[in-house]
Design goal:
alpha/beta; Rossmann fold; Heat Shock Protein 90; five-stranded parallel beta sheet; elongated
Length: 364
């Protein structure tokens, strides 16, 4: 027999014999409160916080349905059980709708049925409380994450930009070759760190922000992205092959589309080979009324066959020698899912890679 005094049970009934029987049956197993007064019962709910509340249906001052409805308003997690000798269908429906009861028990009750109801009801109550606690923990974690993202976007990037500014100022003075190389290393490290922080911010914003649908100027968007990447390592030597439709009337979320294109283009620039005379990035955007097809290809390192599925996993890097964060393609895939789009990869090691995306027109 289970004995758990942490299980608190309240029973309201206008018949003293029923209360005495209930208390005698369960007081050794559980903490039991009984009363024939509805006001006293509600006070016990407030003070003792019983996990289960039993109530007779027909009483002179208040019916059980209305009483259990008030209990629900005081604590929605309380497991509410109606005990009644009547089986009128309308009364049962009313109790379900208004009292939000867990179950009915018929009079005269079966002691073992009541006992099992208490044990099962307590388990349900405990599960609800644990869920509430988890939700509270998640809300707290979410708030802490908000603060971290704010810190990453302001407190971390600001000193990086200050360092970069000092490096740029150093270029105005004549430097020997060794010093110039050191400053170049500092600049490259700052740019990589800033790119990683930006990726974290993009990931967070992609998961949290709502869609803001806009008509897209693809030519303007590509020009903007290439302009932002003009100081990217190797950008000066890069050759761009552009084929971009005007796509009038194409509507999607500009923020997430920018994430997709900027990550694919920067990846194509980053993972180039040292040996070819030309480092090439091809950008193709073809559209019709229902969708747009984006293609970004390069003549770079390529991706081995056993790595092609893995590159879309967070923090996975197909080439450990390169300085990528391993988060860019993961963000691309997540952003495309928000846009109801898809992505495919074709790649040949030491020849290059092609990423092809399909994004539907979200114009209503």
């Amino acid at each position: 027999m289970i004995v758990d005094k942490n299980i608190r049970v309240l029973y309201l009934d206008d018949e003293p014999s029923n209360l005495n029987s209930f208390r005698a049956a369960f007081r050794r197993q559980f903490t039991v409160y009984v009363t024939d007064n509805p006001d006293d019962a509600l006070e016990l709910v407030r003070e003792k916080r019983p996990q289960l509340v039993f109530s007779d249906q027909r009483m002179p001052e208040v019916n059980g349905t209305d009483f259990l409805r008030t209990v629900h308003e005081l604590d929605s997690n309380t497991i509410r059980v109606l005990i009644t000798a009547y089986t009128d269908a309308a009364e049962i429906i009313n109790a379900i709708n208004r009292g939000r009861i867990y179950r009915f028990i018929s009079k005269p009750w079966n002691e073992e049925e009541l006992r099992q109801t208490i044990i099962n009801g307590y388990e349900i109550h405990s599960t609800r409380r644990k869920l509430e606690e988890k939700v509270e923990e998640l809300e707290k974690t979410n708030e802490e994450l908000n603060k971290f993202i704010y810190s990453a976007s302001h407190d971390l990037r600001a000193p990086l930009m200050s360092i970069l500014g000092v490096v740029k100022l150093s270029e105005l003075d004549p430097l020997d070759e060794g010093a110039r190389n050191l400053f170049q290393l500092i600049e490259n490290s700052v740019m990589r760190m800033d790119a990683f922080i930006s990726s974290i911010i993009e990931y967070y914003q992609n998961t949290r922000s709502e869609k803001e649908l806009k008509e897209i100027d693809f030519r303007g968007l590509v020009d903007e992205i290439l302009g932002n990447l003009k100081f990217f390592e190797g950008a000066r030597e890069m050759q761009y092959d552009l084929r971009i439709d005007t796509c009038p009337g194409f509507v999607t979320d500009l923020f997430r589309l920018r994430i997709v294109l900027s990550n694919l283009i920067s990846n194509a620039m980053k993972f180039n080979r040292l040996d070819p005379k030309e480092h090439r990035v091809g950008i193709e955007i073809i559209c019709n009324e229902s969708e747009v097809k984006l293609k970004v290809e390069d003549n770079g390192l390529g991706i081995a066959e056993d790595q092609r599925e893995l590159v879309f996993n967070i923090f996975h890097r197909a080439d450990a020698k390169k300085s990528g964060s391993g988060i860019g393609l993961y963000i691309v895939k997540e952003a495309l899912e928000k846009l109801n789009g898809s992505i495919e990869l074709e790649s040949i090691p030491n020849q290059g890679s092609t990423f092809s995306c399909t994004i539907p027109n979200l114009k209503k």
